[in-house]
Every structure is written in structure tokens, then in C-alpha cells.
Sequence to fold (86 residues):
Amino acid sequence: MKLYNNLYISENNQQNVAQFINYNTNIEKLSKDKNIEQKYRKKDGTLIKISIQPYSQDPKDKDLTIWMFTNENSADAVYGSLGEAR
Fold:
């Protein structure tokens, strides 16, 4: 993810995404919320949304997560402050 961040994410969004991909922070946030999201632009201008949710509600799976990447061309592309899909 760090390489992806450096190669593909716009400079304006790299710091936010770097903080977001901190696994330990995400596990802590997911213990309080069912889903966390980050929106950003790639260097080519494409809008992306990352959604992270727990793998399951079973306590033995507390460190497992599912990461979903949605681009602006998907049916549910609503990106709020970053603008609408093209």
C-alpha cells in the first residue's frame, strides 16, 4: 500500500491515505464503527473510495478486515467533498 500511495495517489491526498492505511489504527476504529472510509484522487484524476469493514463479528477474527476499492465509474460513486464522478 505504501508503494501504491507513492506511485498512484495525488500528492494532495498522499498524507491522508498514508494515515488511513495504518492497520493498527483501523482495527481500533473498527472496534467502534462497522465501516470506515477514505476518499482520494489518483494522479490521473480518478476518484477512489476505500471502504474497510470487519471480516466477521467473531472475536477470534478481530484482526481480519475486508478492503473494498471503488472507482468513480462504479454505480455507487458518490464522493462528497472530492466532487462527483465524471
Summary: The chain has one domain: 2-82. The longest strand covers residues 47-54. The longest helix spans residues 23-30.
